[in-house]
Amino acid sequence: MKNSVGKFAKSVLEINLDRISQNYKILKSYLRKAICGASIKTNAYGIGMMPVARKLFAEGCNDFFVANLDEALECKKVLSNNNIYSLNRSCDYSLPKVVNDSVISLNYNEQNFSASGEDGYEKLQNEQVISITEVIDSKIYSRNPNIYILHGVNCIDGAKAAAEMGLTPIISDLSQLEIWNNYGKKIGKKLAAVLHLETGMGRLALQKSDALQISTNSELISNVELTYIMSHLSCSDEINHVMNKEQLNEMQEYQKMFKNIPVSFSNSGGIFLGEEYHFDLVRPGAALFGIHSCHQKQTPFLQVVTLKAGILQKKILEKDQAIGYGATVSAKRGDKIITLECGYGDGYFRNLSNLGKGYYNNKELRQIGRVSMDMIIFNANNLTEEEFNEINYVELLGDNINVNEVANCAGTIGYEVLTSLGSRYKKVYIG
Amino acid sequence: MKNSVGKFAKSVLEINLDRISQNYKILKSYLRKAICGASIKTNAYGIGMMPVARKLFAEGCNDFFVANLDEALECKKVLSNNNIYSLNRSCDYSLPKVVNDSVISLNYNEQNFSASGEDGYEKLQNEQVISITEVIDSKIYSRNPNIYILHGVNCIDGAKAAAEMGLTPIISDLSQLEIWNNYGKKIGKKLAAVLHLETGMGRLALQKSDALQISTNSELISNVELTYIMSHLSCSDEINHVMNKEQLNEMQEYQKMFKNIPVSFSNSGGIFLGEEYHFDLVRPGAALFGIHSCHQKQTPFLQVVTLKAGILQKKILEKDQAIGYGATVSAKRGDKIITLECGYGDGYFRNLSNLGKGYYNNKELRQIGRVSMDMIIFNANNLTEEEFNEINYVELLGDNINVNEVANCAGTIGYEVLTSLGSRYKKVYIG
Predict the structure, then answer these.
(1) DSSP H helices in A6-116
(2) Residue contact B234–A6, C-beta within 8 A
(3) Is the CB of A328 inside 8 Å of chain B's CB atoms?
(4) If pLDDT is split at 50, 70 and 90, which confidence band does B193 have?
(5) 3-class DSSP state for residue B129?
(6) Do B41 and A345 touch (CB under 8 A)?
């Protein structure tokens, strides 16, 4: 839910957009012919739809997958020329500030982060902004991105909104197809769509009998232009899982059913299963954001998110002391204790209680006591006196402890670590 | 993080503000003399700072506890007369819509939910709005609420902002006290503050030696008016925990140290430990929102949040089928399968995979397969054909399965269930 913007927050969430670009380039380097799209659903895996979409668009990505129509409309808006220039005209944005030479502070209302074009550029230069993707190459906005809606459109109002904004629903149900096709008829246009076909995920897809109906009854798609057929791998994180090959076989069968229609099949993990899994368009998400998408220990992808939790209080205990709710742990007189501005209300999972780790000066610090809603406590005994005096943050996520390690520790996956990141941090986008 | 507003969302989060009022009344009924404040930190436990603060303010609550300065400024803003009237003048708000006789749809920009005063009332009446707390009694806004900042203020800029807005920092550190006292000196004013004293929580509080210094050196508080001393119970959820009495004893000791200064001590759980724990001001949070705050099975508090997850797809499987990522479960040909618009990206914890429950028509439905980022799957075999045809949502949170039950199932506490609620739902505030 909406929360206060971190104007006075001590905890800083750094998001390295340049590394997302690099991860995108790495992914492309694995592809021979396939187009590399990007999955930026769920607010770009919690990282921020707007800056991520713009960065990837500037990087040449033209195919964006989002979860639902609301996200698709937002994606369209942030990649749309008109919107950017209208915002420039009104100057209705909070200007980002330079934090250091290469960092732009984004204590801004995200909806208004739209500086671009000539006016915006000058305005921003006056405010000493060093680099903004949109400024570097505002011409990119003349391209028209493909925005795919994974949940499709499910009502006439939705179809209208999607059609007007040139969005592409992914159809996983005959009723969705009917809505979309009828809307195309109504406005006398062929509307782009993707068919999502069941190959083994069992989640949201057309079953084979539906697919057969569509492939044999052209009336069902009289006003639809099928730009892709697609499916989704359920076990691509396990390279040798039997499901991968089974799903591939199914997809190849569907390819025969829908001749000459391009195919989108692979998520991040699928890209590493070999070229036969690539088909025409891949749609990685996890790898872009530094999440492990397969069980290989080593992946070439860079960490994107750094969380530096600010310190609310440092103290040396003057007596033995129970720590936190439930008094689950006791600290000793003389222990160095640090209370951080971060809790499960900020997405630092409560089940990291007494398990979490943090870093300062390459030294590991251990979290103690239960995670509270707005605070966590660390023992800092292994810092020197000098370090204890100077320390002003603990790295909870970053190059020393990456999103996958935090996930392991919390018994989940990196995806959930990112999508759970709270909204009270001061956010800093790099690049 | 910020996310798309659920304009086209099928999943609806209903928040019953009337029940929050009732819970507040129930809490007050346990108090003989103590004032009943409210903890509305972390965006009112994820429920929405603005509507909750206003509802409680209208109910007579005048003491609001928030985590940090950003939240305090937001709280001040939403409870401030000036803000409301200036918004009325510009009519800069999205008008809420009536969904049915007693429900106001809040597909609005939360920041703009500020209709009130005479103008606003008429405007809203024209739009057929049935009830809005602020409209019912706009006079409440002549009161001046006390807003307490649990993390205190930690820099001069922060002190300036807090002082200008009449906020009350809770001091847990001598350096915070110095900043606040110095700022008072600078502007020639005595500034209200609360001292947070260590009694056994070990988290964020002044240790005894600090308290002693303050109590004996009036220079440290020359420009501070101590409105309360406070501490925080660590084990109030366990009525017989030895810590409760120990902390109470400590608090009583501090009372002697700071004679004639009122005391705030109890959270929700503390209120049920007996009147000696109440002192002058209590600050419940959990109980207001229907969260169990003690180990008693029966609590009198009403559920506040209902999550009705919308259905993206219903299908009867045409063959045996693996379900979800990792193919952790197999469903049978003929099984009734429902895919819901809700996932861990919406705060439905991934560790509810193959454990979650939902309700429709008082029938329990079981979640199957791993929770995905944007979707979950339920088996609906125990619905009749008629029910399966008509079902359009599954209750994931509400009167049939409350926040504490979901928490138990996920291995956490109700607090984290609420603070994790995502931002993609269509939100409906009742009352």
Answers:
(1) 17-29, 41-45, 49-58, 69-78, 81-90
(2) no
(3) no
(4) very high
(5) coil
(6) yes
User: Which residues of chain B have a CB within 8 Å of the CB of A235?
Assistant: 325-327
Q: Could you write out the DSSP letters of every residue in A409-430? A: HHTS-HHHHHHT--S-SEEEEE
Q: Does domain B17-289 have CATH number 3.30.470.20?
A: no
Cα of B88 to nearest chain A Cα, Å: 21
Among chain A residues, CA nearest to B110 = A2
User: If you average pLDDT over every residue of chain A, what do you get?
Assistant: 87
The pLDDT of B240-246, averaged and rounded, is 96
Q: At B382, list the tokens.
A: 């125990």
Mean pLDDT over B71-84 rounds to 79
Give the tens place of pLDDT for each residue, A133-154.
443 344 444 689 999 999 999 9
Whether B274 shows a pLDDT value over 60: the answer reads yes
Work out the average pLDDT over A107-128: 34
B41 is catalytic: yes
Q: B5 and A70 in contact by Cβ < 8 A?
A: yes
Query: How distant is the Cα of A118 from the closest Cα of chain B, in angstroms?
Result: 28
Candidates B373, B397, B423, B428: best to mutate against A (most CBs of A within 10 A) is: B373
CATH number among 2.130.10.10, 2.40.37.10, 3.30.70.1140, 3.40.630.10, domain B305-430: 2.40.37.10
Residue recorded with tokens 């044999």? A216
Residue A169's closest CA among A282, A281, A69, A251?
A: A69
| Nearest beta carbon to residue A202 from set B6, B347, B369 | B369
Q: Is the pLDDT of residue A325 over 70?
A: yes
Tell me what percent of the residues of chain A surpass a pLDDT of 70.
Answer: 84
Q: Do A371 and A348 meet the contact criterion of CB atoms below 8 Å apart?
A: yes
Residue B296 Cα, gap to closest chain A Cα (Å) = 16
What is residue B429's three-state secondary structure?
A: strand
Helix (H) or strand (E) holding B44: helix B41-45
Place of tokens 């790495």: A26
* DSSP-derived secondary structure letter, A341: S
Q: For chain B, how long is the longest CA-to-CA vector?
A: 80
Domain extents in chain B? 17-289, 305-430
Contact A401, A288 (CB under 8 A): no
Q: Which two tokens stand for residue B9?
A: 């969302």
Q: Please, which pLDDT band fits residue B116 given cuts at 50, 70 and 90?
A: very low
Q: Is any Cβ of chain B less than 8 angstroms from the Cβ of A84? A: no
**For residue A398, pLDDT beyond 90:** yes
CA–CA gap between residue A343 and residue A372 (Å, rounded): 5
Q: Is the pLDDT score of B126 beyond 80?
A: no
Share of chain B above pLDDT 70, in %: 84
**Of B87 and B144, the one with more pLDDT:** B144
The reported pLDDT for the residue numbered A106 is 33
Q: Are A251 and A197 in contact (CB under 8 A)?
A: yes
Alpha-carbon dihedral sign for residues A40, A41, A43, A45: negative
The answer to whether residues A282 and A35 touch, using CB atoms and an 8 Å cutoff, is yes
**Under DSSP, is residue B195 helix (H, G, I), strand (E, B) or coil?**
strand
Q: Could you tell me if A240 lies within 8 Å of chain B, comparing CB atoms?
A: no
- For the purposes of burial, counting CB atoms within 10 Å of the CB of A257, is it exposed (0-12), middle (13-18) or buried (19 or more)? middle
- At residue B80, the pLDDT reads 85
Q: What is the mean pLDDT of residues B145-162?
A: 97
**Mean of pLDDT over chain B:** 87
